[in-house]
What does this fold into?
Amino acid sequence: MLNTDFNLDNADDFYEALIDAHRDLSTAQSHELNARLVLLLANHIGTLPALREALAAARSNVLGSGNSALNPG
Amino acid sequence: MAASPVVDRDFQALEFAYRRSPDQDASAPAFHDVVIVGAGPVGLALAIDLAQRGVRVVVLDDDHRLSSGSRAICFAKRTLEIFDRLGCGDRMVDKGVSWSVGKVFFKDEALYRFDLTPEPGHCRPAFINLQQYYVEGFLAERALALQNIEIRWKNRIVGLRQTDAEVELEVDTPDGRYRLRAGRVVACDGSRSAMRTFMGLESKGRVFQDRFLIADIRTSAELLPGGATERWFWFDPPFHPNQSVLLHRQPDNVWRVDFQLGWDADPVEEKKPENIVPRVRALLAASPAKDVHFTLEWASVYTFACMRMERFRHGRVLFAGDSAHGVSPFGARGANSGVQDAENLAWKLALVVGGDAPDALLDSYADEREFAADENIRCSTRATDFITPKSEISRLFRDAVLGLAREHPFARRLVNSGRLSIAATLPATGLNTPDVDAFSGDLVPGAVAGDARLVGTAGPTWLLRELGRDFTLLWFGEAPVWADSTAWRTVVIGGTGGLRDIEGLATQRYDARPGTAYLVRPDHHICARWRAPLAEGLRAALDTATGRR
It folds into this structure.
């Protein structure tokens, strides 16, 4: 259901736009931006099973890695 | 410094003799159609290309030695194809370490591997690693064998004056100063270009606040499992925490290690062998080699900027290579794009100097290579931003991408350890004739012609080897009589007496049917194509590609 194969038009264009969107924001503002971005994209996707899968995949990846950037191992 | 193996000349020790030129004794300043400033890879490639086209060139270099240190080491497929045209491709590839596979690591885990030549049927590998002094040495040997090239070592430009008709240069030598006049001057004198300074011009852009250490080490031990010839890149490895490390194999048992140091590093301290050796030891301890003997060949601590001149042409003075543009090293887009500048300029300069094309054709050099420089700068800037995130949130996303990449294929495409040099597809405007017929695939007008294995009457060959010195008409299927012309070389694939496309890769890459034709420029860029070409359309396309209309 959740497509984790590459599906973007252009990886580098997207990544640059993502980082650019955060330019000159404080860390708190960046968190706010990220939260709004998740909600916007979730609405765009719409399908609940896909969203549940995405949430589970993100959560397990964070817990599995154990040393994310915010919590350096 | 250790000696090179006996089979090769020691290019690092080689000194070229200064010789007094008759121009220095002339009563009035001598005139030359083309003067090239700088005998580095770009200046030498340009000189050879022009000389092969029958243009006499004078090359002035302020030094009398080749590159000090290995410097640029990654030479891309496109550059090798250019070296083939210049008559020294085999020497480069025979000496270099060919590679196409890269591996990316995050902390102590392998994230993924990529292969830069995922498809067969290309003569040249995606990359070779070869010390810059070999590349310059092989180019210099080729240049010295050509009658049309005169290289004047220890000739330093100290003054420049441009009029509508010519450029007058003042040159300093061990015998004092002399003047000479030139129809065109090409400044290939590197990132700190004296020519640029004399003309009051600038190269502007973004300076990155980070420092890197290059350490070239020599060891007979094997650092990669199974003797692999691969590019290895680590994000945040245990042996060099919080920074990146890049490892490349070079010829002569030399390895290039590139350590990110961070902006706060002290360049003077970091360059001391006693501080470099422990960093290398930490890397080796994590490799199959473990605790092996090595010697330090060359080291450099550097920062970099992505920048370019606003215009690459200023009247009769043209800028090529690092003098015109600079990139970060991630992507191997420096020397490669410089050699590509040279080949874009050479055929145009030859036509203009020979009176076969208008001066305006040289404007297209600037237009096309400024476009390519922007692409190179964009790619190398993005890679640098990924490798060295400049904000907390940028680092968070970087690490999220790396974290996801272990499990999810999509995230691997977002990982950016350098988008490695490929030739730019030039804009559809300018010298290209827009498509009127429908085609699929990547070989659009502006792209570099694709290679393929072919078989001719004399045996196996490669498509790119069959292209002419000037324009080539690549015709698929039976060619009509008019397809033969003195205005271009005609290469027939698949027709009677033509080259046979035994693997079908040429037909596939060019999306060809019987009657399909491509017009290819002297620098191997495609400039027009048709499903049902007419002589009239072809001549018009040729005029467009040479600035005559």
User: Anything to note?
Assistant: Residues 453-545 of chain B form a domain with the Glutaredoxin fold (CATH 3.40.30.120). The CA atoms of residues 520 and 526 of chain B lie 4 Å apart. Chain B has three domains: 22-96+130-205+307-377, 212-303, 453-545.
